[in-house]
Write a structure and sequence with these properties.
single chain; alpha/beta; Rossmann fold; 3 helices; 7 strands
């Protein structure tokens, strides 16, 4: 399924609908170039899950954890990884707990270490004013 997310309202509308589809144990891959909307999507998603605090980009920390009433959401950004095995130093066994929802930016950096995604969102920059989201739910 392809969705136009050229403006923030469209991305926000999708985040609202998507938030209702999340289940404990979901692993969501966010694919796309820098600046394509991956982190903005996660911030909007957390808003629709009633998270009230500040949502930080996990680029330097590798992951941030958000305790929600329905589950813990873990937002990972693997952009800075140089080797997928670095994930073992993060105690990934605890991160991929079946009670968590895990959202991963740059999942290709964790190839052969990460579990299979239950949902994949592909963020695509078409041109300077158009963005598209490709949704794959398994």
């Amino acid at each position: 399924m392809q969705i136009d997310i050229s403006d923030l309202k469209q991305l926000d509308d999708f985040a609202k609908v998507f938030s209702a589809s999340l289940c404990k144990g979901d692993v969501i891959f966010l694919d796309g170039d820098l600046g394509s909307g991956k982190t903005a999507f996660t911030q909007l998603l957390l808003k629709h899950l009633a998270y009230q605090g500040r949502v930080k980009s996990p680029t330097y920390a590798i992951y941030e954890s958000y305790d929600l009433p329905q589950f813990t959401l873990i937002h990972m950004d693997l952009y800075r990884l140089s080797n997928p095995e670095e994930l073992y130093y993060l105690a990934i066994e605890e991160i991929f707990d079946p009670n968590n929802v895990v959202i991963i930016e740059w999942p290709n950096k964790g190839k052969n270490v990460l579990p299979k995604a239950t949902k994949t969102l592909g963020f695509e920059l078409i041109d300077s004013s158009k963005r598209q989201l490709n949704v794959d739910i398994t």
